[in-house]
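Ticket reopened. Same input as before:
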Amino acid sequence: KNQVEQSPQSLIILEGKNCTLQCNYTVSPFSNLRWYKQDTGRGPVSLTIMTFSENTKSNGRYTATLDADTKQSSLHITASQLSDSASYICVVSVRGAGNMLTFGGGTRLMVKP
Amino acid sequence: DTGVSQDPRHKITKRGQNVTFRCDPISEHNRLYWYRQTLGQGPEFLTYFQNEAQLEKSRLLSDRFSAERPKGSFSTLEIQRTEQGDSAMYLCASSFIAGVSADTQYFGPGTRLTVL
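Engineering reply: fixed in the latest deploy. New output:
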Protein backbone atom coordinates (compact mmCIF):
# COMPACT_ATOMS: atom_id res chain seq x y z
CA LYS A 1 0.00 0.00 0.00
CA ASN A 2 1.30 3.43 -0.93
CA GLN A 3 1.85 5.49 2.20
CA VAL A 4 3.46 8.75 3.21
CA GLU A 5 4.37 9.25 6.86
CA GLN A 6 5.43 12.55 8.35
CA SER A 7 7.07 13.49 11.60
CA PRO A 8 6.66 15.17 13.91
CA GLN A 9 2.89 15.60 13.84
CA SER A 10 3.26 19.02 15.41
CA LEU A 11 6.09 21.34 16.28
CA ILE A 12 6.43 24.62 18.17
CA ILE A 13 9.50 26.78 17.65
CA LEU A 14 10.52 30.33 18.44
CA GLU A 15 10.68 32.94 15.74
CA GLY A 16 14.09 33.05 14.09
CA LYS A 17 14.93 29.43 14.81
CA ASN A 18 15.44 26.72 12.21
CA CYS A 19 13.54 23.46 12.00
CA THR A 20 13.46 20.28 9.93
CA LEU A 21 10.40 18.24 9.04
CA GLN A 22 10.65 14.61 8.00
CA CYS A 23 8.83 12.50 5.43
CA ASN A 24 9.10 8.77 4.75
CA TYR A 25 7.25 7.13 1.91
CA THR A 26 6.57 3.68 0.52
CA VAL A 27 5.02 4.87 -2.73
CA SER A 28 6.08 2.86 -5.76
CA PRO A 29 6.80 3.41 -8.55
CA PHE A 30 8.02 6.81 -7.50
CA SER A 31 7.55 9.78 -9.79
CA ASN A 32 8.18 12.91 -7.75
CA LEU A 33 7.90 14.34 -4.25
CA ARG A 34 6.39 17.66 -3.32
CA TRP A 35 6.12 19.75 -0.22
CA TYR A 36 3.05 21.89 0.24
CA LYS A 37 2.25 24.56 2.80
CA GLN A 38 -1.35 24.79 3.96
CA ASP A 39 -2.64 27.66 6.04
CA THR A 40 -5.66 26.97 8.20
CA GLY A 41 -8.85 26.96 6.16
CA ARG A 42 -7.08 27.36 2.83
CA GLY A 43 -5.93 25.09 0.04
CA PRO A 44 -2.34 23.79 -0.07
CA VAL A 45 0.31 25.84 -1.86
CA SER A 46 3.25 24.15 -3.56
CA LEU A 47 6.71 24.86 -2.12
CA THR A 48 8.98 22.43 -3.97
CA ILE A 49 8.81 19.51 -6.33
CA MET A 50 11.65 17.02 -6.80
CA THR A 51 12.07 14.16 -9.22
CA PHE A 52 14.04 10.97 -8.67
CA SER A 53 17.35 12.49 -9.75
CA GLU A 54 17.16 15.59 -7.58
CA ASN A 55 18.67 15.56 -4.10
CA THR A 56 17.87 19.06 -2.96
CA LYS A 57 15.77 22.02 -3.97
CA SER A 58 15.39 25.42 -2.38
CA ASN A 59 12.62 27.98 -2.39
CA GLY A 60 13.68 31.00 -0.36
CA ARG A 61 14.03 29.94 3.26
CA TYR A 62 12.68 26.46 2.46
CA THR A 63 15.10 23.69 1.44
CA ALA A 64 13.87 20.22 0.61
CA THR A 65 16.05 17.14 0.35
CA LEU A 66 15.31 13.77 -1.17
CA ASP A 67 17.00 10.41 -0.71
CA ALA A 68 15.31 8.11 -3.20
CA ASP A 69 17.29 5.10 -1.96
CA THR A 70 16.00 5.33 1.60
CA LYS A 71 12.69 6.90 0.49
CA GLN A 72 13.10 9.83 2.80
CA SER A 73 12.68 13.54 2.39
CA SER A 74 13.09 16.51 4.66
CA LEU A 75 11.99 20.13 4.60
CA HIS A 76 14.29 22.57 6.35
CA ILE A 77 13.00 26.00 7.28
CA THR A 78 15.61 28.61 8.03
CA ALA A 79 15.14 31.67 10.22
CA SER A 80 11.48 30.95 10.85
CA GLN A 81 8.90 33.71 10.74
CA LEU A 82 5.47 33.94 12.33
CA SER A 83 3.94 33.53 8.86
CA ASP A 84 5.52 30.10 8.60
CA SER A 85 2.89 28.82 11.04
CA ALA A 86 0.93 26.33 8.95
CA SER A 87 0.68 22.65 8.09
CA TYR A 88 3.41 21.27 5.86
CA ILE A 89 2.36 18.34 3.77
CA CYS A 90 4.64 15.87 2.00
CA VAL A 91 3.11 14.53 -1.19
CA VAL A 92 4.37 11.72 -3.41
CA SER A 93 3.28 11.11 -6.96
CA VAL A 94 2.96 7.62 -8.43
CA ARG A 95 4.55 7.18 -11.82
CA GLY A 96 2.13 6.19 -14.53
CA ALA A 97 -0.98 6.85 -12.45
CA GLY A 98 -1.99 10.17 -13.90
CA ASN A 99 0.21 12.00 -11.42
CA MET A 100 -2.14 10.84 -8.68
CA LEU A 101 -0.86 12.21 -5.42
CA THR A 102 -0.53 10.44 -2.08
CA PHE A 103 -0.54 12.91 0.80
CA GLY A 104 1.06 12.61 4.19
CA GLY A 105 -0.84 13.67 7.25
CA GLY A 106 1.17 16.85 7.55
CA THR A 107 3.26 18.48 10.26
CA ARG A 108 1.56 21.34 12.03
CA LEU A 109 4.15 24.04 12.71
CA MET A 110 3.58 26.89 15.09
CA VAL A 111 6.11 29.71 15.25
CA LYS A 112 5.92 31.79 18.41
CA PRO A 113 7.33 35.25 18.94
CA ASP B 1 -6.46 34.88 -13.74
CA THR B 2 -6.84 34.72 -9.99
CA GLY B 3 -6.28 31.02 -9.51
CA VAL B 4 -8.56 28.11 -8.77
CA SER B 5 -11.92 29.13 -7.33
CA GLN B 6 -14.50 27.03 -5.58
CA ASP B 7 -18.11 27.70 -4.76
CA PRO B 8 -19.57 27.71 -2.21
CA ARG B 9 -16.87 28.17 0.41
CA HIS B 10 -19.10 26.76 3.11
CA LYS B 11 -22.14 24.50 2.94
CA ILE B 12 -24.30 23.32 5.79
CA THR B 13 -26.88 20.70 4.95
CA LYS B 14 -29.11 18.18 6.64
CA ARG B 15 -28.44 14.49 6.43
CA GLY B 16 -30.05 12.96 3.37
CA GLN B 17 -29.90 16.08 1.22
CA ASN B 18 -27.93 16.32 -2.02
CA VAL B 19 -25.17 18.89 -2.42
CA THR B 20 -23.20 20.08 -5.43
CA PHE B 21 -19.90 21.94 -5.39
CA ARG B 22 -18.34 23.82 -8.25
CA CYS B 23 -14.69 24.28 -9.16
CA ASP B 24 -13.33 26.72 -11.72
CA PRO B 25 -9.73 25.85 -12.59
CA ILE B 26 -7.01 28.14 -13.82
CA SER B 27 -7.84 28.82 -17.43
CA GLU B 28 -6.08 26.57 -19.94
CA HIS B 29 -5.26 23.99 -17.29
CA ASN B 30 -6.13 20.61 -18.73
CA ARG B 31 -6.09 18.61 -15.51
CA LEU B 32 -8.59 19.00 -12.68
CA TYR B 33 -8.50 17.04 -9.42
CA TRP B 34 -10.89 16.61 -6.52
CA TYR B 35 -9.72 15.80 -2.99
CA ARG B 36 -11.34 15.41 0.40
CA GLN B 37 -9.64 16.56 3.56
CA THR B 38 -10.79 15.80 7.08
CA LEU B 39 -9.55 17.71 10.11
CA GLY B 40 -5.90 17.08 10.90
CA GLN B 41 -5.36 14.84 7.88
CA GLY B 42 -3.79 15.37 4.50
CA PRO B 43 -6.02 15.56 1.43
CA GLU B 44 -7.34 12.30 0.05
CA PHE B 45 -7.56 11.88 -3.72
CA LEU B 46 -11.07 11.33 -5.11
CA THR B 47 -10.98 11.69 -8.87
CA TYR B 48 -9.43 13.63 -11.72
CA PHE B 49 -10.13 14.80 -15.24
CA GLN B 50 -7.97 15.45 -18.24
CA ASN B 51 -9.96 17.92 -20.26
CA GLU B 52 -13.51 16.52 -20.12
CA ALA B 53 -12.48 12.89 -19.63
CA GLN B 54 -12.69 11.43 -16.14
CA LEU B 55 -9.60 9.23 -16.03
CA GLU B 56 -9.79 7.89 -12.51
CA LYS B 57 -12.86 7.50 -10.38
CA SER B 58 -12.27 4.33 -8.45
CA ARG B 59 -11.25 6.40 -5.43
CA LEU B 60 -14.62 8.08 -5.15
CA LEU B 61 -15.81 7.18 -1.68
CA SER B 62 -19.09 5.58 -2.69
CA ASP B 63 -21.64 5.60 -5.48
CA ARG B 64 -23.20 8.61 -3.78
CA PHE B 65 -20.26 10.66 -5.09
CA SER B 66 -20.07 11.75 -8.71
CA ALA B 67 -18.14 14.37 -10.63
CA GLU B 68 -18.45 15.97 -14.02
CA ARG B 69 -16.44 18.28 -16.22
CA PRO B 70 -18.73 18.57 -19.23
CA LYS B 71 -16.84 21.07 -21.33
CA GLY B 72 -13.35 20.55 -20.03
CA SER B 73 -13.44 23.76 -18.02
CA PHE B 74 -15.31 23.96 -14.69
CA SER B 75 -16.19 20.83 -12.76
CA THR B 76 -18.89 19.84 -10.29
CA LEU B 77 -18.77 17.33 -7.46
CA GLU B 78 -22.12 16.02 -6.27
CA ILE B 79 -22.82 14.08 -3.11
CA GLN B 80 -26.23 12.46 -2.93
CA ARG B 81 -28.01 11.51 0.28
CA THR B 82 -25.37 13.12 2.45
CA GLU B 83 -24.27 11.47 5.66
CA GLN B 84 -22.62 13.01 8.70
CA GLY B 85 -19.37 11.27 7.74
CA ASP B 86 -19.28 13.33 4.56
CA SER B 87 -18.46 16.42 6.61
CA ALA B 88 -15.05 17.55 5.40
CA MET B 89 -13.22 20.07 3.27
CA TYR B 90 -13.50 19.33 -0.44
CA LEU B 91 -10.53 20.65 -2.39
CA CYS B 92 -10.17 21.15 -6.09
CA ALA B 93 -6.83 21.51 -7.86
CA SER B 94 -5.84 22.13 -11.45
CA SER B 95 -2.68 21.78 -13.46
CA PHE B 96 -1.32 21.82 -16.95
CA ILE B 97 0.45 18.73 -18.08
CA ALA B 98 2.11 17.87 -21.35
CA GLY B 99 3.48 14.42 -21.93
CA VAL B 100 4.73 12.66 -18.84
CA SER B 101 6.25 15.64 -17.08
CA ALA B 102 5.47 16.37 -13.46
CA ASP B 103 2.75 18.94 -13.00
CA THR B 104 2.32 21.44 -10.22
CA GLN B 105 -1.20 21.30 -8.89
CA TYR B 106 -2.70 24.58 -7.80
CA PHE B 107 -5.33 24.21 -5.15
CA GLY B 108 -8.48 26.17 -4.60
CA PRO B 109 -9.60 27.42 -1.18
CA GLY B 110 -11.91 24.45 -0.70
CA THR B 111 -15.56 23.98 0.16
CA ARG B 112 -16.19 23.11 3.78
CA LEU B 113 -19.21 20.81 4.09
CA THR B 114 -21.02 20.27 7.36
CA VAL B 115 -23.73 17.64 7.45
CA LEU B 116 -26.06 17.96 10.44
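The CA atoms of residues 32 and 52 of chain A lie 6 Å apart. Chain A is about 0% helix and 60% strand. Please confirm and we'll close it.
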